[in-house]
Request: fold
Amino acid sequence: FSFDLNVRYGNPHKFLVVVSHVKRGGDLKTFLISKAVSNMADATKTLSTIINGPGQQEAKLEQLHGVLFQLFQQLAMDEIKAFLRFMIQESLPLLLSRPVLLLFSNTVNGFVRLLVSGETQQLPDAVKTIRFSRSQLKDLGHFAIDVFQSQAVSLEEEITVLRKALAILYQSEEDWRQAASLLISIPLDTGHRTVSNDEKLEIYLNIALLCLEDEDAVQA
Reply:
């Protein structure tokens, strides 16, 4: 664990906290990352250090995933948004940013399914005990879709995952119109993402059913 997270354990108490954590079987790298992302300024510095520091891409992705999971565990809404703003920068290589943003989208989808139906299969183990509220998930989902629009072509899959997740959330609240609107906004024939006929059929059927629930037979 070679890069500097700019964490200072300058007094004996903090040092003992670190030692105690490691003795209990905790991972030192994860613990130090958690301390480094305690606020937005530290989080941004940590991300820059990871991306610009030495190391293989696989190791950097692991570290970035660790930061994201830590922010989820803290329910740190502002910090998560800062994380997304940082990762969406065009100066970052897509080989690093895309897997992280896809992990974010899939994890939000997992949180939605956990909230709506109790499913945990789509959540990484690191966050299976975390619970976001409906309003928090809506906030994160809509924020991410808006932010990802600056790279809509490259992040079409990530945006689609979020739109589907939000549609599930709104459908569970019987907000048929909003759920249908989210699915209607999913591009199915852009050529940038391979969409199977089965997926297209599923989306079209869901849109039709939602419009009928909303008593909009014309749109259906």
Observations:
- DSSP finds ten helices and no strands in the chain.
